[in-house]
Every structure is written in structure tokens, then in C-alpha cells.
Amino acid sequence: MVRSCEQGIPAWVFVGTLLFHSVTVRGAALKQEVALDNGATVLNHSMSLVQRMETLLTMGNGSDVTLRVQTINTDEVKVIQAHSLVLSLQSDVFEELLLTRNNSAVVLRETPDCAAVFDKFVRYLYCGDISVRLDQAISLHKLASKYHVWGLQQGLTQYMTLHLSSDSPTGHVVGWYNYALQIGDMALRDSCLQYLSWNLSSVLQSGEWGSISEDLLLSLLQRSDLILQTELELYEALEAWISQNQPVSATVESALRAVRYGMIPPQHLFRLQKQSALMLKYYESIRDLLYLAFQFHSASPIQLAKYFDVNCSIFTPRNYLSSSWGSPWVINNPTRDDRSFSFQTQLGPSGHDSSKRVTWNALFSPRWLPLSARSTYTELGAMQPTRTDGGRPRIIVTPATSSPDFAGVSFQKTVIVMAKQQGKVVVRHVYNFHQSTEEAGDFLVDADLQRRASEYLIDSSLFLHIVIKPLYHTLLVARK
């Protein structure tokens, strides 16, 4: 029988007695939580138990195992007096280590970051709760994975997913993305990638931008759902990243060829050709793309489609926040009634259309009921109202007038929903549709707009940004 270090009492007896005594602690206020059907009442002293378990770990009373945590490549050793029963109950890895040990000490070798939080990790095994800082999440996740503490591992994954927008001195999302990629956690990887894509403008202005890897950079550049001010902003940020990281020429060429030069106004392209050291150095690598961009800016899309495939990335807009592409829309007290507003955008990104404007009308209905879910006429033939308490929020965006200039072009509408997380305004959701958010199917489906503290509201208002994206299709191509 394994005995404790104090008074010769078996460790399992000591811990078991503690568990029993904590439930019968004298003078504790009885808490009636649940009255059961049979008249029994549950008395809850779990907090007292947690406190006693923490004291057990801190004082080392009845300890029957010593954990010697060695920091790899250093002489630093952290000693923790523990209890085999607790460790074995929480971790099958610890159970195996304890069964095969030769003496009362177990030597554990950990990296410096994991060794620094090991006592916090062990405390979780005793108490079931843990305080986490942004810079500790990966280290604790590594320990939870290594020792098969699955509840903690899942909790830390959720913590990282919910704290992507938190402020940190050097940024943390890129590090979490790289870690998720390393361990194969696709859900966390995708959450990080989505956050970076949807909040790219703020990322470009942060110190975190310079730390992203080449693979992550190229992955971001391929995406059409990036949310940023303009394509020019992306090019200038790319130039800064290349200057800081000095990648090989093949990486630079791949990155430059992922820029959508057709979305940059011609006057800025001319300036870059003369003033951008990066473009001057790699001009021959992107000459064909610049030539195509200038052709795009000099002719109507229909004329261009007669000779080129316009359904390629260089002609596909991302989600640009500048006024040429859309407008913000703040809806105060969004559940009150229908709202509408009008705004203007450019007809298209082509320099040929730069002087042409389109006026758009937007309608927001907080409780719209689809036709399929309502009766249009009563028995007397009177039309029923189209908005009821049982409906869902909906936005419709349509042009104020039709125009021949719309020929060959369809307009994708994107509604960006903002939210405040950890004190920072970030993108919560993005919805794409042609005319109505009904097409998206899930527009604000989980939003409780009636609740003032709803995570979809900022100061009781719904913060939206509508982006209009002209799209050109291969059906216009008519080569001979």
C-alpha cells in the first residue's frame, strides 16, 4: 500500500477522508438548490471542497508523489508535492506514469513555456478551475493534450476561439493559427483564419502583420472575403511585409501575382509603377497583370469580355469598406419598426465607369415573415400585413433605377454585421446575397435583438456595413 509522507496515513485514505469531511463541514450554511420529486433536498458544499483541495495541494499534506518538473535545456527544476489518487483520476497518462514509477518521485521534462505554467495546470487537476492569460493559452493547451486532460483541452480551445479579438501587446491570433495548424485542430485554425480575413484592416495596422508566415500570407491573398479599406491598402501592407521578412523571390512573385490590380484605380497604379521600389524590382513578374488591369480600366466590361475571360480573380472585388463600394448603416433600436436609407456607389471598379454612380435603396425589417410562412388573404379577401411578431430580420437592397449600364453585370450585396468583443469593435458575421438576405437563409438567425445586452448590438444599435460588388460572368465572353 502506498503511504503518505506524513503520519503514515495512506494517501487514498487522507484524500477520501477529506472528500467526506468537506461534505459534513461544521457550521457551513446549507444551500437548498433543488427540491426533488421525492421530497429530498440537495445540499451543496462544492465550493468548500474546492477550497480544501486547493489547501491540500498547497500544503502538501498526505502527499505520496513528488513531481519534479525539469525545464528542457536548463538546470531549473520545479518540485510539486501531489497525490497519486487525484492525478490518476484526472489523467490516464499520469495513471500510467504512477504505476510504472520506481520511487516516490516522477520526473517530467517540459519546454520552458509549459514548465512556467505547470503548477497552474496541476492546480486545475485539484480544483477544476483555472485562470488563463492570452500568452498562456497555448502552453496550457499543450499540457492538457500531453496528459489527456480533455475537458481542459476543449475549454482552452473554446477560450481561444472567444478571445481572438482581445488586445495583446504583440498580437496572438497568428500564433494561435500556427499552433492550430501544427496540432491539426481545423476548427481553431479556421476560426483564426476567418478572424484575420474579416478584420484585416486592423491586422494590417498591427505589429502582428509582420509576424505572419509565408503560407498564411499567400492563403490570405487568395481569399475574396477579405474585409479591408481598398486593394491599395493590401498592396502597401504586402510591400511592408516583404521589406520586413525578406522572403525568397519565388514567394514575392507569388504574393504580387495574388494582388487584384484591376481593383486599384489607374492613377494609383501609375504612381506605384514609378514610386514603389517593390514593383520596380519585380515589374517583369507582374507585367502581364498590370497590362490587363490597364485594359480593364480603359474599356467597358462588355467590350473587355469579348476578348478576355472576365471571370477571374483580378476582376473580382473583395469586401472593400471605402465609400466607393458601399456605406455603413447604424440602426438604433432595431426591433422597433422598418427602416430604410439610400446610398451611392460607383457603377464598377473599371476606370471606364469611375464617373458613373448607382443609387441604392436599402430596407431593414426586424420581423419579416416569408411568403411561404404566412397567409396572404383572409377569408374576406383583405390582405394580411407582411410583418408579424413571428418573423425574422431581413434586408433588401435594390437599385433606385435601372440602367443600360447594368448589362452584363450582376451586383452581389454583402452585409457586414459588427459587434463589440472584449471592448473592440470587430466583424461578427458576413452575409452575401443578390437582392434580399432571405437568400442567405440564416441572416441574424441567432440574434436576440430584443435584449439590450445582445452580442449583436453596440449600445442598443445594430452596426452594419453594406458593400456592393459588381461581378462579371463568363457568359459575356464571345471570342471569335
From TrEMBL:
Alphabetized UniProt keyword annotations: Signal
Keyword RNA-binding: no
Domain of life, per lineage: Eukaryota
Domain BTB residues, every copy: 63-134
Cleaved signal peptide residues: 1-27
Keyword Signal assigned: yes
InterPro entries the UniProt entry points to: BACK, BTB-POZ/Galectin-3-binding, BTB/POZ_dom, SKP1/BTB/POZ_sf, TRAF_BTBD17
Protein name: BTB domain containing 17
Organism: Seriola lalandi dorsalis
Organismal lineage: Eukaryota, Metazoa, Chordata, Craniata, Vertebrata
